[in-house]
Amino acid sequence: MIHQLQATYQVEQDRILVRVNTHAGEELRLWLTRRMVKNLFPHMIQACTELVTTQPQIASHDGADSKALTEFSRQESLKQADFQTPFNNQALVMPIGEEPLLATTVHIASSEGGSLRLGFQEKIPGTANTRSFEVTLGPTLFHGFLHLLESALKHADWGLTLGDIDKLKDTNL
After folding, report:
1. Cα distance between residue 30 and residue 17, in whole Å
2. Cα–Cα distance measured from residue 132 to residue 19, given in angstroms and rounded to the nearest whole number
3. Cβ of 158: how many Cβ atoms within 10 Å?
4. 51-95: per-residue pLDDT in tens?
5. Residue 171 has what pLDDT?
6. Which of 43, 91, 152, 161 could form a disulfide with 27 if both were Cys (CB 3.0 to 4.6 A apart)?
7. DSSP classification of residue 84
């Protein structure tokens, strides 16, 4: 179970480093490149919208569209989030090693209880090792994760924002 998330732009790598702490004292590390973020965000936003609009407790009675419902859910989730507590750097175990996984493939799927599963995989041509891990994020944690990524994007200055989905779409998807 996830305890903390962190997303920071690393200038020297020109990548976003995502760190995940679990309640069991594990830490998982992940690199997201500009290309991966550009291709991934539209799918994450779509999955988030689908997640929000399928929850009966968030159904609109006033005819609001899915974008408005998603924004409402996002605002409510961010009110509950704790962005003040420092990230715990004292991991007991690093199941995939200290070197962050370079995400080359990401799978997003709905999960039971209104959560989303994100599966990150690293397939580097010419290497025999394939590393991967999967996390499940409930709506509140998912909105928090998107918020952290958006903040890291501002520091990266890649010209990408969550609010401009059309700009993020890659015609090769």
Report:
1. 6
2. 14
3. 17
4. 766 655 544 445 555 566 556 565 665 566 666 777 778 888 999
5. 37
6. 91
7. S
pLDDT score at 97: 93
CA-CA distance, 134 to 20, in Å (whole number)?
11
Q: Which helix (DSSP H) or strand (DSSP E) does residue 167 occupy?
A: helix 165-168
Q: Is 132 helix (H, G, I), strand (E, B) or coil?
A: strand
Residue whose structure tokens are 């501002």: 154
Instruction: Determine the Cα–Cα distance for residues 162 and 172; give it in Å rounded to an integer.
Output: 19
User: Looking at residue 92, what DSSP letter applies?
Assistant: S
CB contact set of 34 (below 8 Å; sequence gap of 6+): 14, 15, 156, 158, 160
- Relative to beta strand 15-22, strand 115-123 is unpaired
The H or E element containing residue 30 is strand 27-32
Q: Which residues lie below 8 Å from residue 166, measured CB to CB, with a gap of 6+?
A: none
Successive 10-residue mean pLDDT values, the chain, 173 residues: 92 96 93 94 81 56 56 60 74 92 94 87 90 91 88 91 52 37
Q: What is the pLDDT of residue 21?
A: 93
| Pairing assessment for the beta strands 115-123 and 105-111 based on DSSP bridges | antiparallel
Are the C-beta atoms of residues 34 and 14 closer than 8 Å to each other? yes
Nearest Cα to 95, choosing from 5, 26, 31, 32?
A: 26
